[in-house]
Amino acid sequence: xxxxxxxxxxxxxxxxxxxxxxxxxxxxxxxxxxxxxxxxxxxxxxxxxxxxxxxxxxxxxxxxxxxxxxxxxxxxxxxxxxxxxxxxxxxxxxxxxxxxxxxxxxxxxxxxxxxxxxxxxxxxxxxxxxxxxxxxxxxxxxxxxxxxxxxxxxxxxxxxxxxxxxxxxxxxxxxxxxxxxxxxxxxxxxxxxxxxxxxxxxxxxxxxxxxxxxxxxxxxxxxxxxxxxxxxxxxxxxxxxxxxxxxxxxxxxxxxxxxxxxxxxxxxxxxxxxxxxxxxxxxxxxxxxxxxxxxxxxxxxxxxxxxxxxxxxxxxxxxxxxxxxxxxxxxxxxxxxxxxx
Length: 341
What we know:
single chain; alpha+beta; two-stranded antiparallel sheet; globular
C-alpha cells in the first residue's frame, strides 16, 4: 500500500478507492533490475534526483543468513534474518503497539499477496523506501491500490522495486483483502519517527535496501540541494523494527522556506492547508502529510509533476506542482516532515 499524498478530488473535496499482487512478477522485476540497473535517460530529459530515488547497485549483496537470532530494544521476541526477509510475514516486535493484524497484513496470501506489514511494518510506519501508511484515510488507501493496478500510479524511476512490487501486488489482492488492510492501517495512530536536521554538511551515505544509510565513520560532504534521510540505527531498521527512527538532513533554512510555501504558495504553488488541513494532518479523504518521510514526499511531488502519478488526485495536483523546482519540493517536504503527525 504505497502512500502519499496523491491528493484532492477538488480543492476542497476528495476522491479515493482500491488494492495488493504476485511473487513471480516480483522476482522477475528484481532480476531485471540486477541486470539492467537504472534506466537510461533520453538526451535533454530531466534526471530524477538519485538521493530521492535510491536504487540498489548491481553488485548489491545482502547480508548472509547465519541462523542467529536478532533482537531489538524493548522487545522479548527474536527472529532470524531469514524470517525477517520472508515476504509472507510481518515481524511483530511490539505487538502491544497496535491491534491484532488482519491476515493480509500479518501473513498475506501465498503465492501472490505479500504481507502488507512486511514492507509497511506491523504498525504502518514503513520507511523512506516505501511509505508510512498509518492513519491514512481508508478510502485513500483503496484508491491508491486501484491506481497501482490500473498503471496510473508509477515511479519516475521504474527500476525502484518498492513501486514495482506494489503494482504487482495490486493485481492479485482481492477487494476484501484491500478493504481489510485499509481499515486496519487507517485506524492506526501515526507516530513521530523522523528528526529533521538543517545542516550544510551531511554524513556520507550509500544505498542499501532501496534507501540511504550513513557510512561508518565521521566523513562529511556538502548537503547541496538534497535530503539525506538515514536510519538512526541501521540494524534496527534492517530488522524491520517498527520503532526504528530516522534523521533527515536538509539544507539550512529549508523548514522556514517550506512553511512559507505551504502557507501561501510563494508565487510558485498554492497553500497546502486548503486541502491537507491547517496542520497538514489531512482533511476528510485527503491524506495527511505531517511527520511523514521527506524523501518519500519529494518523490511524490516529483512524480506528480512529471506524470508518473496520474491517478484521481493528479488532476488537481499536477497544476499545483508544475512550477515547483527541486529546492521547493525539498523545502515543502522538510517542513511537513518536521510537524507532529
